[in-house]
Design goal:
Blueprint: H1 3-6, H2 26-40, H3 45-52, H4 56-68, E1 72-74, E2 89-91, E3 97-103, E4 107-114, E5 119-126, H5 132-148, H6 152-156, E6 158-165, H7 191-196, E7 203-207, H8 208-219, E8 228-233, E9 237-243, E10 246-247, E11 262-267, E12 270-275, H9 282-291, H10 298-301, H11 310-332, E13 339-344, H12 348-364, E14 374-377, H13 384-398
Parallel strand pairs: 3-6, 6-7, 8-13, 13-14
Antiparallel strand pairs: 1-2, 3-4, 4-5, 8-9, 9-10, 11-12
Length: about 425
């Protein structure tokens, strides 16, 4: 399917969820309309009524109320040949705000995102390896100035603070070169409670790759697929799963732990079976660059602008693509995904090159008995995990009920 076809105006066939006119469902209908406007862009009241099955009168009343509450805004009238001009309405970016913290194995980011998913403020810190004290200090130093940058009305519209973090960070000390015992503090750390002590808003903690998947689903383009597999390639590769139009966290909040998927790798001695994390993680690229005498620091310092890594990058792209293609085939043999979405902490042109190689490798694998899968690049990019952290509070407060998977879901230890 072409990008143009996917970006077309909503068709009646997409009205898979309906509104309800009876009393007691005001919040549901409001969230449904916000979700439609967020996904399709500016919509008129007539278009929203057609998509939801609500009457035009009910739709008009709800959208007027959302405008008064500062969640929707009117766009310029669209004039046709006859009749009154239609007035589309869109998401008001100033309608709500949320803070997001990404805790990574080489860096952390604190962002302030608006209702449209745009990052208003950002702070970035790199390190050799993360410790609870480093993260606490980073938030303590940077959160108060971000708060002070908000006007009183903006501060009143902050929905919460979301933390996107790998679970069980202490298990990965050796892989990232941390000294023995240096990351043991994560075993007993309660980073969400530490942040709650300095933050006046509700704090939520979620797996970092699942949070990135939530960002893609809420702010990106992948909502067009009811079932999709999501990969985020950071220091280590991780992922997420969307089933039946909702992010699926799994019983422990760790669904989509795709880095642990076994794949076959080519070596000088033939094939060996290892985890996807051993080939499709950026830390493997870092090691290649260091082994060739290069400086990999721009990977973490400026993740959207890497230095020219030459042959080391080409070899890594080949190996990562081969592993990702195998993982997609394995996953789609279990669940009939429509798409596999690939994003990462890397420049856009490198991510796009990786996606092209994955498609090529995927096309050569034995897929008898399986349906084809679209392999597409994510739309959120480098900040997907941090924006995903911010998205947690916005999803909980403004997404329709089917999309609110976080309110009672378990959270694993960071």
């Amino acid at each position: 399917m072409s990008d143009a076809a996917r970006d077309a105006r909503p068709a009646a066939s997409l009205a898979v969820v309906g509104g309800a006119n009876q009393s007691g469902v005001r919040v549901y209908n409001e969230r449904l309309i916000l979700s439609l406007v967020r996904r399709f862009g500016p919509l008129s009241k007539v278009e929203v009524a057609r998509l939801t099955g609500l009457s035009v009168q009910s739709t008009s009343a709800i959208m007027n109320r959302l405008q008064l509450e500062g969640l929707l805004r009117r766009e310029a009238p669209l004039r046709g040949k006859v009749g009154q001009p239609t007035i589309p309405m869109s998401i008001e970016p100033e309608g709500a705000f949320s803070f997001g913290l990404k805790i990574g194995r080489r860096s952390c980011d604190l962002v302030l995102a608006d209702f449209g998913g745009a990052v208003r403020r950002r702070e970035h810190l790199t390190f050799a390896y993360p410790t609870p004290d480093i993260v606490r200090g980073f938030v303590s130093e940077n959160f108060p100035p971000m708060m002070q940058s908000l006007s009183p009305d903006q501060a009143r519209r902050v929905a919460g603070f979301g933390v996107a973090s790998p679970f069980q960070l202490w298990l990965w000390a050796e892989e990232i070169g941390a000294p023995k015992g240096a990351m043991e503090g994560w075993r007993d750390a309660d980073i969400a409670a530490d942040i709650a002590a300095i933050c006046p808003y509700p704090v939520m903690l979620w797996n970092d790759a699942t949070s990135a998947c939530a960002a893609e689903f809420f702010f990106g383009r992948a909502w067009r697929y009811r079932d999709f597999l999501y990969f985020f390639i950071g220091s280590f590769v991780g992922g997420g799963v969307v089933l039946d139009g909702a992010v699926f966290p799994g019983r422990s909040g760790n669904a989509g732990a795709l880095g642990s998927m076994p794949i076959a790798r080519r070596t000088g001695e033939g094939l060996e079976v290892s985890q996807l994390i051993a080939s499709a993680s950026i830390c493997q690229l870092e090691r290649r660059i260091e082994a060739s005498g290069g400086d990999p620091s721009s990977i973490w310092r400026t993740p959207d602008r890497w230095a020219d890594f030459g042959a080391a990058l080409e070899l890594w792209l080949d190996e990562a693509a081969e592993g990702l293609a195998q993982a997609i085939v394995a996953a789609t043999s279990v669940i009939d995904f429509e798409a596999a979405v690939i994003d990462g902490a890397m420049p856009t042109h490198i991510r796009d090159a990786l996606c092209a190689r994955v498609r090529d490798d995927f096309s050569r694998l034995d897929r008898r008995g399986l349906q084809d899968v679209e392999i597409v690049a994510g739309a959120v990019g480098v900040d997907a995990r941090a924006i995903g952290g911010a998205a947690l509070s916005l999803i909980k407060n403004f997404a329709r009920d089917r999309e609110v998977v976080f309110k009672d879901a378990p959270t694993g230890a960071a």
